[in-house]
Design goal:
alpha/beta, single chain
């Protein structure tokens, strides 16, 4: 099975090119062979979700992006019902470990986790296991 923990499609929204590469390498190391849809801009990600009927199993969202923050991006998703919390595990990622961000992230209904960058193989596996448990529930 290519999917890890039932995760066959990962969507990533992060304005740093380098981080996209880091995530790709980490996923390869984790043995993930599913689909990765990566966006540098939250607006592009929103357009994609609006036009796409297949929802990602895992959504990795950077909190600190220049034009639209990760929080605003998720608010837009929620407003336009572009995500189903049942089907998509949302993980917010940040390089700055600010407690206020953590609290804000964990308070959002769809957010399952808050991780500090870079996302490690171990954390990815833990997230995938959580996803599998929730999907099976």
């Amino acid at each position: 099975d290519m999917a890890i923990g039932g995760i066959a499609h990962i969507m990533m929204v992060d304005d740093e090119d380098d981080y996209h590469l880091i995530i790709r390498l980490m996923l390869r190391k984790a043995g993930y062979a599913g689909k990765l849809t990566a966006f540098l801009s939250p607006d592009e990600a929103l357009d994609h979700l609006r036009g796409e009927h297949e929802r990602p199993d895992l959504l990795l969202v950077d909190i600190n992006m220049p034009a639209t923050s990760g929080f605003e991006f998720l608010e837009d998703c929620e407003r336009d019902t572009l995500l189903s919390c049942q089907d998509t595990t949302v993980v917010m990622c940040s390089s700055s470990n600010r407690p206020i961000d953590m609290e804000k992230a964990r308070a959002l209904p769809c957010v399952c986790d808050y991780v500090e960058k870079p996302l490690s193989v171990e954390e990815f596996e833990r997230i995938a296991n959580d996803h599998a448990r929730r999907a099976g529930a």
